[in-house]
UniProtKB/TrEMBL annotation:
It holds the Pfam family Peptidase_M23. Residues 158-252 form the M23ase beta-sheet core domain. Residues 1-44 form the signal peptide. The keyword tRNA-binding does not apply. CDD domains: M23_peptidase. The keyword Coiled coil applies. Keywords: Coiled coil, Signal. The lineage of its organism: Bacteria, Bacillati, Actinomycetota, Actinomycetes, Kitasatosporales. Residues 73-129 form a coiled coil. This is M23 family metallopeptidase.
Length: 266
């Protein structure tokens, strides 16, 4: 059978109950972050003439505060993200600048090393040229008798060296650096000196009036080693000079070509 409501006047919910329900609904809306604007007429319809607090004002205030907090949180998060991005950008720029500085420093060092190596090579080359450049055995002289000149004065029938014009007592110099292998009487050469040059060739200085070096002594380019004279098989004072491939007689080579090859103008 059907149920029917008892007759009589309907009773309205108490104020306390209404307020409790309103607050629960507002709390639910506030938790979701939304307070619907249409709530106002709906609540108003419940009790059109009620002058008491319905809870709507509290809901609006709570919603505004929540919105402000959410916005502030969003702003803080954005600021933090921007700060992180700025730090990352600054760090990347610092790394780039450091790499650029290191690259430049490496280039400067490489250039300095290359320049230093070039200077060392140039100095070595200059020293090599200096050591390989000879001087004439007698300064300011000239060749009075050439190489391979024919005459009965020489046992071989021809001149095995060249003669430099020089009065007795004229200074005689080692044409280059080397080691003395002979210093003393040399028969037809008179007082003579033989030097093994640093390049492996030999030079000989004959008819000397005095000798200023000893066997085993190292001499340098331009160093005075003796004085010219008129000893041995000679017709007058001069310096006999020979260039050889070995220390012994008969290994002679053209002295003029030898000296010119080492930078001496003869």
């Amino acid at each position: 059978m059907a149920f029917t409501r008892a007759t009589g006047k309907h009773r309205r919910a108490s104020r306390t109950a209404r307020t409790t329900r309103n607050l629960a609904g507002i709390a639910t809306l506030a938790a979701s972050g939304v307070v619907a604007s249409v709530a106002s007429p709906a609540l108003a319809a419940t009790d059109e003439s009620a002058p008491h607090d319905t809870g709507l004002q509290q809901a609006v205030v709570m919603g505004d505060e929540l919105a402000v907090r959410i916005e502030a949180q969003a702003d803080a998060q954005q600021a933090a993200a921007e700060a992180t991005a700025a730090r990352a950008k600054a760090e990347a720029e610092a790394v780039r600048l450091a790499d650029a500085a290191k690259k430049k420093a490496d280039e400067v060092k490489k250039k300095a090393d290359e320049e230093r190596a070039a200077k060392v090579r140039a100095a070595r080359e200059a020293e090599r040229k200096r050591l390989n450049t000879f001087v004439a055995p007698v300064t300011g002289s000239y060749v009075s008798t050439g190489y391979k000149a024919s005459s009965g004065l020489w046992s071989s029938g021809s001149h095995t060296g060249i003669d430099f014009h020089a009065a007795s007592g004229t200074s005689v110099h080692a044409v280059g650096s080397g080691t003395v292998v002979e210093a003393g009487w040399g028969g037809a050469y008179g007082n003579n000196i033989v030097i093994r040059m640093n390049d492996g060739t030999y030079t000989q200085y004959g008819h000397l009036s005095s000798i200023g070096v000893t066997v085993g002594q190292s001499v340098t380019r331009g160093e005075q080693i003796a004085l010219s004279g008129n000893t041995g098989n000679t017709t007058g004072p001069h310096l006999h000079f020979e260039a050889r491939t070995g220390p012994d007689y008969g290994s002679d080579i053209d002295p003029i070509a030898y000296l010119r090859a080492h930078g001496v103008s003869v």
